[in-house]
Amino acid sequence: MSRLYEGLLEALRLIISFDPDLLTIVLLSLRVSITAILLATLIGVPIGTLLGLKEEKKTGFFNKIIFTFMGMPPVVAGLIIFLILSRQGPLGVLGLLYTPSAMIIAQVFLASPIVIGLTMVGIRAKGGEIEETARSLGAGSALAAWTVVKESRYAILGAVITGFSRVVAEVGAVMIVGGNIEGHTRVMTTAIVLETRKGNFELAIGLGIILLMISFIVNSVLYTIQKGGKKN
User: Domains in the chain, ordered, with CATH?
Assistant: First the structure.
């Protein structure tokens, strides 16, 4: 128990003093995950909106694919991206393996189905009624679609935040494609695994606390968004 107590105190000291090693890992984690979720949003929201505006019976096959990828194990996603980016893979010539770019690609691969699926469900929940109303008021296809997106903004924001929650806490895929290289591709989750194995519990606990704080903030924002959506 004393070891845990001492480790917790040292971890707090590392956080308060802005330990360079800890700060480097946290900033890289945020850079990778934020970039990934922005790209996933650009990909997922338009596709999810398009599918959500169509009748469910017409998109049944695509729905099954999306929902399957939403639950894809991270290590499987990492393996797929690894094979694509390896020297023998179709994109091996780009030399992206074991770089932050490879980690971003892996996280986009994980987050995009979540954004697509949850956006589609949110749009479909009330999109038909809103689109019909907009068209009855003389709106064209593009304006009607934009009106649906605007009125479904809480569901879409919830989809994006859920996707971010998935990737920021992910370890398997980024470890496979990033290699967990110190100062280059080591993020919070992979560092926690490594430091725990090394017995360096202070840094692992410090990173764990920060990861929990980020998760708390993200989920608090999601709760607030959903609460605000229910009021409207």
Answer: 2-231 (1.10.3720.10)
